[in-house]
Amino acid sequence: MMLLEDSTFLTYQTVQKYFLKKIKNGVDEQTITDVLTKRTYNQRREIAFAYERRAKKDMISALKGALSGSLETVILGLMKSTAQYDASEIKASIKGLGTDEESLIEIVCSRSNAELMEIKRVYKELFKKDLEKDVCGDTSGDFAKLLLALAKRAEPSSVIDYQKIDEDARALFEAGVKRKGTDVKCWISIMSERSVPHLQKVFERYKSYSPYDMQESIRKEVKGDLEMSFLTLVQCFENRQLYFANRLQDAMKSKGAKEKVLTRIMVSRCEVDLKKIRQEFKAHHGKSLYQTIAEHTKGDYQRALLNLCGGDD
């Protein structure tokens, strides 16, 4: 993400130029896009405060009135902190009739303990409800139990216990591939209560017990939302940035793009680990993320995503 550090733009005249500038055919979307996608979240908030002080208007409302479609979704997402954005996406995934399980799984199963703790705090602040209760109220069965365990997990010990590694690897095997049916409770317990370094070693050790690796075992043992959840967890434990790179590739592997997935990952990871995601994308898919976005999007939406991407590898 190409971030500009200069804060001299925070005068009313400059803010007015960027956000109230009218051109013959309407709003100058390109300028709005370039300014907001090339700043950090904190800088965008400074711009919003300056705008509101001088114009006596809420900048978010002004942006909603000026923009539309996919571009509006990106820009409004960028006006939230990463935790606020994730919390809002979770709320949207369980709001109304039906549940967007894919979005819910991506966020809850891919975030670190620290990120989930902040998301829960912000969720309570924004919606006056507990995230755990809302998620459980909209899901069921082992899928709900797994999400609840992840949402409630405490920071595990970072101490590597090699005896425990072997015990966990054997337990995962005996709870799944070795028996008829799957002891999902055991899988949930291990994957929600252990540290990432510990689980990485567990999955490596698991191969000495099972003829299949952990991901293959999951595909054989469980289906549906539970399968997707466990796979997301294991993929993120093994290489979180590769998981997001693969999600981006899947969102753009056919003509056009799955804009919802593309937007969510680009907005939520742009100030977290997008540079590493770009590196994994190029290494595993033979083309840069920048080039792939350019091929599958267009217009101001494309411009916004390319600005967030920050460069062609």
From TrEMBL:
A pair of annexin repeats may form one binding site for calcium and phospholipid. This is Annexin. It is found in: Secreted, Extracellular space, Extracellular matrix, Basement membrane. It holds the Pfam family Annexin. Its main location: secreted. PROSITE patterns: ANNEXIN_1 (PS00223), ANNEXIN_2 (PS51897). The lineage of its organism: Eukaryota, Metazoa, Chordata, Craniata, Vertebrata. The keyword Calcium applies. GO terms for molecular function: calcium ion binding; calcium-dependent phospholipid binding; cytoskeletal protein binding; phosphatidylserine binding; phospholipase inhibitor activity. Keywords: Annexin, Basement membrane, Calcium, Calcium/phospholipid-binding, Extracellular matrix, Phosphoprotein, Repeat, Secreted. It comes from the Eukaryota. The keyword Electron transport does not apply. GO terms for cellular component: basement membrane; cytoplasm; nucleus; plasma membrane; vesicle membrane.
